[in-house]
Amino acid sequence: GVPPHDGLVTSLLASGDAAHRAGLLAAATPDASLVDALIDAGTRERVSGESSRAGVAFEAAVILARRLGDSGPLAMALTASGSDARRRGDLATAERLLREGVSIAESAGLDVPRGRAVHQLEIALKLQGQFDEALACYRDALAVSERAGHRADQAAQLMSIGNVLKDRGDYAQALGYYARALPLVGDDRDTRSAIYFTTAVVHEFQGDDALALDFYRRALAEDTANGYVVERAIDLAAVGASLGRLGRFDEAFAAMDEALP
After folding, report:
1. CA 103 → CA 70, 72, 130, 196, distances in Å?
2. Cβ contacts of residue 212 below 8 Å, gap of 6+?
3. 3-state secondary structure of 228
């Protein structure tokens, strides 16, 4: 059947007039399912490339969630809206919304919404060059994952900390975090490949092309096993470049040729 609130969501997205949208929202009865419907609609619009319509949906979700007064839906709406602002490049707005989302979820003791808000805030801070604050957020999220015993989340947070340290130029520390993440990955080939590749990049930055080659090849093995065509081509190009720097030109040309479609 037709999902509840579908008519309101459709009308909001179709309206190009802010005053008309405000009237629709003022007449609506806020509840958690309506907030969820708007967040879902915003996500679909963003994936479809309709950034303006996505922004309308996320903004409406925040407005109704504030009226509802329930910390959970409000934290989720703020996180969705903040994430959308980050994707649009409005990092100041993203940071403001996400900090509010973290604060509300934290005050209500809501670990899952808080974790999602913290993750998005970390990215926004990193993009603004606020590396120390980003690291503090990642380490805080890591502590939450460790308390909950979520190994996959721990691996993701450790890798993220490593990435911030890499971007800051702290290569030795970055490698340490990547090494801590690997045993927690389990069967997740995607994350394992990402860790191998970024580890290779750091070794390359350090001038150790032999180690870089080893880890690029590990990433290549994972992406080949996954059947990922694009990622495999990127890995092969990186392998070829490493071989070239090592003076192994025949092997380098072979890898580059294999990388080409």
Report:
1. 14, 11, 19, 35
2. 200, 201, 203, 204, 238, 242
3. coil
- d(CA 223, CA 241) in angstroms, rounded, equals 18
| Local structure of 151: helix, strand or coil | helix
Angle subtended at Cα 236 by Cα 231 and Cα 241, rounded to the nearest 5 degrees: 125
Residue 221 CB-density burial (10 A; 0-12 exposed, 13-18 middle, 19+ buried):
middle
Q: What pLDDT was estimated at residue 4?
A: 58
Q: How many CA atoms lie within 13 A of 256 on its CB side?
A: 11
This prediction has a pTM of: 0.71
pLDDT digits (tens, 9 = 90+) for 24-60: 899 888 899 999 999 999 999 999 999 999 999 999 9
pLDDT in tens, 140-155: 888 888 887 889 889 9
Rounded Cα–Cα distance for residues 89 and 128 (Å):
10
For residue 60, give the H/E element and its range. helix 51-68
The C-alpha angle 102, 119, 159, rounded to 5 degrees, equals 145
Specify the 3-state DSSP secondary structure of 31: coil
Residue 177 Cα to chain centre, angstroms: 18
DSSP letter string, 66-114: HHHT-HHHHHHHHHHHHHHHHHTT-HHHHHHHHHHHHHHHHHHT-HHHH
Number of other residues whose CB lies within 10 A of the CB of residue 150: 15
Q: Name the maximum alpha-carbon separation found in the chain.
A: 71
Return the closest-CA partner of residue 180 out of 4, 167, 5, 165. Answer: 165
Q: At a CB cut-off of 8 Å and minimum separation 6, what does 2 contact?
A: none
Distance CA 75, CA 106 (A): 9
